[in-house]
Amino acid sequence: MVTKKSQDTVRVVGIKPSSVAMVQGTLSMLFGLVAAILFSISSTVHWAQETDSVLRGLTLGLASGFIAIVGVPIIYFAVGWVLGWIQGFLINALVSMSGGIVLKTEEE
Question: Contact at 8 Å (CB) between 108 and 5?
Answer without folding.
Answer: yes
